[in-house]
Amino acid sequence: MQSTAPKKYAAVMSCPDQESPQRSELELSIQNISTVCEAIINDPHTHVGTVPLVIQALDAKDAEYRNIVMLSLVKVFKNIIPLYKIRLHSNKVRGSGECAQLQEFDKNLLHAYTGFVKRIMRCSEAISYRAACYLLESLDHFNLADRLISKMLRGTLERSCRNLCVEILGRKVRESTDMELVYSIISEMCSLKFHPPVLRILLEMNTFEDSADDSDMQDGSSEKTRKAMQRKIADGVTRIYISILRNQRRDFYEFVFCCLTKHKNLVRSDLLEGLGMLLNDTLSAGDIRTKLSCMQCILEIFGKQDYDFGVMVSTLFDIIDPGTYTKTGSDELVFLVRSLFVLRRQLPARARAFLQRLLQLCLIRHMPELREIIEEMKQSYSLDYRDAITVGSGIVWGIQMDLESIGSPASQRDCERLLLDINTLLSNTNKLKFPGYQPVSFMKCHIKNLMEEDYLVCEKSDGVRALLYICTVNQRSFGFFLDRKNTFYRLESTFPRIESTLFDGEVVVDSEGESKVRHFLICDAMLFGGRNITDLTHIERLSHALKFTRIYSAEGACGALKISVKEMQKAYGLHCVYMEQHKLKHGSDGLIFTPTSAPYRSGTAPKLLKWKPPHLNSVDFAIKRCNDCRWLYKLFCLGHTKEYVFFDYYFGTEDEDEGQVGVDTGKEKAVEHADIDGKLGEFRFDKEKWVHDLCDLSLVKGGWEFIKVRTDKDTPNAVSVVINVVNSIQEDVSIEMLNSYVPEIRSKWKLREAAQRR
């Protein structure tokens, strides 16, 4: 029977044709909609054909009117939808009544409802997401529920309706006994087009509770059917997690690890291997907290299985790198270490290396919360961690100083007095610190410095760093060398009578025929004639040094020491300086770049740059022989707390125990020392050297190579310096790379020079 209702209400269905209609016109249109919708609700069989007319009202320009129409339609369908789903391919009708009328009603109702859902899906306004929520909340049993679910999942990405969408979806997953509906939600979630916290609703699922009865099933399914649907839902949940990991959706990681932990029993055995591989791949991405959470998840899933935790151990070892670790997830870290090294057994060498890194971390980052797990590891593997990390205060004492061959060491009291005088003149706060500056290793980012500022470049001499201090007492001049151990050596040479004067430089040995001449090369000046000149430009400071050398030579100062100022070039002359090194009478292993306008300041100078060819970059380590292997040495650097911190191993050879160790800076002359244990040594990193990976004893390329014993200092490099040098080695800034920037460095220097002349 064809309804006549559409014709009856067509006249009153006119909607406002303006974007902002008059209030009276809008109120009249709303009243008309209300009248029509009320008639549909009161007699749906007669007036269901009017619904498409109401849907057309959604084309109105006024947003308020559209919102009212959409909510009115929601109310209509909530009141007239029957308590069953319309079966499209069956003439069987559930319920009683006149068969023909009920079939026609179903047809018209489904047509109208489908049209409304399509409009909801196309609409991007906030009201459309709310409408989808209201429909699914009351009509989840009816047709097109999957489309409403898809709309609501997208709605979780909209701030205005996110909470409502999540609330309704969560309620359906928690409380619904219709497993088909739950499966529809899970299937739609596989697209990952939703707000990540939506995954929390999976944690609240009770679909897999064994207490569910057949009577709880809406369609009265048998136990076999219920179990089959549970399996489909479980596979769908697993598919969501695998999709997240495979697509590396990091925004979901925080939630997926929690969900996987709860649903670990849902994953089919044939999917476990693939899941493990995806989780291992995830360990290479994300921040520290993400990696820690992922490892906890792996332990929960595979902890009771025969699983290779090698990737986890390696990742955890990298995480606790003292140079990069941030104090994040300490509790998780302790849990993982205990699970991997105490509750499970690892190779002793791997455990020892891990324990040493934990100790480094404790010393550098001050993490007392790790002490308990360190003690557990010590007992579990019978390790003496004190031997592994504590070297002792005498590690580098008693070494013969190279400068002793030039001058006589001053007494401790005289050293302290002289150092106090110098630091007072320099206005240094710490009166007992070494007053010299320290350059930083050259890295790619420093090329920008050479372009933007004026720098002078000179060769880096392979000698002994020292400061030359000259003072006059009772009309008599005295000269001293000061090394980095704050020891003064009184020189026998005669010096001009001059008030407190302090130069920075290096002591080298020049080869002049068959004779050897000790030569002090000045690279900077700090005091001159009792005046602090550190605030002058570098060029002005060097002019004072040149003045001194002329006086020193003119007065015929005698002694075995030659003094001169290093030859400097503008930064764009770096290639010339490098190519002329072979003509020098002493060893040279790099370049020093000094900014012309920067003042001289004690301590690390970020703008003072030290470049070495990558194969010559070196680090000073304190050395301690391992008790259980006479050719294996532990290398220590200086931690932030001024304690020795284990950094790496040095793999020596049997020859070293016989006294032949290394080659002295490229010369064909072996360095002889019966034992380097307890000494301070200079090392370079050899990328081609084969060494053992102590975690699994495999052979790997890349290890430290001994160069020489350092006698001019008493402490190894700080851990920050070591890390910078290692980074510099990895960046591989070659002389060819520097040369490629010379034209641009020169061009910008000339532009600055021209600007100053204007």
Automatic annotation (TrEMBL):
Q: Which GO terms describe its biological process?
A: 7-methylguanosine mRNA capping
Pinpoint the Nucleolar complex-associated protein 3 N-terminal domain residues: 31-116
Q: Where in the cell is it found?
A: Nucleus
Record domain mRNA capping enzyme adenylation: where: 438-612
List the InterPro entries: ARM-type_fold, mRNA_cap_enzyme_adenylation, mRNA_cap_enzyme_C, mRNA_Capping_Enz/RNA_Phosphat, NA-bd_OB-fold, Noc3_N
Keyword terms, alphabetized:
GTP-binding, mRNA capping, mRNA processing, Nucleotide-binding, Nucleotidyltransferase, Nucleus, Transferase
Q: The organism sits in which domain of life?
A: Eukaryota
EC numbers: 2.7.7.50
Q: Where is this region: Disordered?
A: 1-20
**Keyword Magnesium found:** no
Q: What are the residue boundaries of the mRNA capping enzyme C-terminal domain, all occurrences included?
A: 617-738
Which molecular function term from Gene Ontology is one that the record holds?
ATP binding
Q: What is its main location?
A: nucleus
Read off the SUPFAM superfamilies from this record.
ARM repeat, DNA ligase/mRNA capping enzyme, catalytic domain, Nucleic acid-binding proteins
| Top-level EC class | transferase
Question: CDD domains per the record?
Answer: Adenylation_mRNA_capping
Q: GO terms for CC?
A: nucleus
Q: Which reaction does it catalyse?
A: a 5'-end diphospho-ribonucleoside in mRNA + GTP + H(+) = a 5'-end (5'-triphosphoguanosine)-ribonucleoside in mRNA + diphosphate
Q: What is this protein called?
A: mRNA guanylyltransferase
The scientific name of the source species is Menopon gallinae
